[in-house]
Design brief:
The protein is α+β, with helices and mostly antiparallel strands. It has three domains: 230 residues, no CATH class; 149 residues, Mog1/PsbP, alpha/beta/alpha sandwich (Protein Transport Mog1p, Chain A), CATH 3.40.1000; 54 residues, Membrane-bound Lytic Murein Transglycosylase D, Chain A. Helices cover 36% and strands 22% of the residues. The strands form five sheets. The protein has a seven-stranded antiparallel sheet. The longest helix is centred in the middle third of the chain and has 20 residues.
Length: 485
């Protein structure tokens, strides 16, 4: 979460990830409609801001270069696509109307080669050229700090669902046939562009393995919130990997095209992996923000989703968001302002008289509203804290009726200031490229990874190593280590 005030941002993304103007089916040079391209250009800056901002120029230039090579195989006129890398810790890639394609640095970091990058970009280009938005109804997606809670308060289940998805990549599910068609087109484009098409199923397998590991780590095997966004929006399966392998072999170029692992690794070396401390980091059940100098802990069984505007806390027995807004120095007025924002166009929410409190030396206040929704009665609470004369933060909490703070009572009491020493100790995880020495093993190198668990499994997945694979002297591999701020 960056230091920003609450405001709404509406993005007309036309079923994000698959929007164009019917480009497949003609052998002639094709073009994206000027009006659609103009709309995409107008939204571009907002999307980049919403999802973490820019990445280093050398990373952007690399992705743009590979994307241009792939897009040239699609038959769309030169300049019809634009490729952007987002500074987001979520594994995701998506496209919007007008040929704008986005990929996160986290997904880029998982990839083992330039050819794997080409496969993902080719897949997204395929969604656009195949016009997979044609069968979908255009809709607006509301991006707002309190949007998830607005959905509950107003009774709009769809708004709540979409708002919860905003911070993780603004996604909608594709149909099976659309996914397979995009896979086929992606394999075709990367093969025509000179890449080894076998790297497409390799990338799908790596993402599937990472997804499985993350869900096990979270202890919620049946909870798809732990699954990387690209895996949710582009559902993975062993059958899909097998099919992609068959399509790659059918091109006649399998195993003979470019892979360019060394170039890819050179770009990744030193790049942040996982959370950027400038946006706050998630460590288990703790959220820590070194720049804002604050921290809090979520209840057991709840997950944390860190967005650029808010931190979402989600579980089966309630949900909450932590954010900030304009503050005049009066906590009661601040709480009223938050409730008015939640009500939106609805009637004013009636809430209890704010109660004063003190939390870890911070002046605080909270109030609760009993709200009728499509899901029945719910308690919606705002718990606010004064950090200084012109800065306040708050939780908005949705809990079962009659429970007020519900399972979040310990969370609101956990908010505290970070000391200068604690803030200084928070460092980013970064990718480090190392050359395997004669004495190095999978276990010894994995032991250097900046994780408290699953070190060996993370190392193997990041480097495309199966369970029985060993390392060769001189081989270059990825580690994730602590870097400097």
């Amino acid at each position: 979460m960056k230091v920003r005030a609450l405001f709404a941002l509406t993005l007309s993304l036309a079923a994000l990830g698959c929007a164009s103007s019917g480009l497949v089916g003609s052998g002639e040079q094709r073009a994206i409609a000027p009006g659609v391209a103009q709309q995409a250009a107008q939204q571009h800056g907002q999307i980049v801001q919403e999802f973490g901002g820019a990445v280093p120029a050398e990373v952007s230039a690399y992705v743009e270069d590979v994307g241009a090579r792939i897009a040239a195989q699609s038959g769309v006129s030169t300049g019809g696509f634009r490729f952007t890398t987002l500074n987001s810790p979520v594994m995701n890639a998506f496209a919007v109307p007008g040929g704008y394609i986005y990929i996160t640095r986290q997904l880029l970091g998982l990839m083992g080669s330039e050819a794997e990058l080409a496969s993902v970009l080719g897949h997204e280009v395929g969604h656009i050229t195949a016009d997979h938005s044609a069968a979908r109804q255009n809709r607006s997606l509301l991006s707002q700090l309190g949007a998830l809670i607005v959905g509950a308060v107003t009774g709009s289940g769809e708004l709540a669902q979409l708002a919860g998805q905003v911070s993780q990549g603004l996604f909608l599910q594709y149909s099976r046939s659309q996914e397979l068609e995009a896979d086929d087109l992606g394999v075709r484009y990367m093969s025509a562009g000179g890449y080894d098409p076998l790297q497409s199923p390799r990338m799908l397998a790596a993402l599937g393995a990472w997804s499985d590991m993350e869900t096990r780590f979270a202890g919620r095997e049946e909870d798809q919130r732990a699954t990387p966004s690209w895996a949710r929006t582009h559902p993975l399966s062993a059958e899909r990997v097998t099919r992609a392998t068959q399509r790659a072999q059918a091109t006649g170029t399998a195993g003979r095209g470019m892979v360019n692992r060394d170039r890819h690794l050179a770009v990744l070396d030193g790049m942040i992996f996982d959370d950027d401390p400038a946006q706050g980091i998630v460590e288990g059940r703790d959220f820590l923000h070194p720049d804002l100098r604050l921290a809090f802990s979520v209840p057991p069984g709840f997950g944390i989703q860190n967005g650029t505007r808010a931190v979402s806390v989600i579980g089966s027995n309630g949900q909450a968001q932590f954010s900030t807004g304009p503050f005049s120095g009066d906590l009661e007025a601040y709480i009223g302002q938050v409730f008015r924002g939640l009500a939106g166009q609805q009637a004013q929410i009636q809430y209890t008289q704010p109660r004063a409190a003190t939390v870890n030396g911070l002046e605080a206040a909270y109030a609760t509203a009993h709200v009728q929704t499509q899901q029945g009665m719910l308690d919606v609470s705002v718990f606010a804290y004064r950090f200084d004369s012109n800065r306040a933060y708050h939780f908005v909490i949705v809990a079962p009726p009659g429970s007020r703070l519900g399972p979040f009572a310990s969370m609101v009491q956990s908010l505290r200031r970070l000391s200068a020493q604690e803030a200084a100790a928070i460092r980013p995880r970064v990718i480090q490229i190392v050359t395997v020495g004669a004495a190095d093993t999978v276990q010894s190198l994995a032991g250097r990874m900046a994780y408290g668990s699953y070190q060996t499994e993370r190392f193997r997945i990041l480097n495309g190593l199966a369970a029985g694979d060993s390392l060769a002297r001189g081989q270059r591999v990825k580690l994730v280590v602590y870097g400097r701020r």
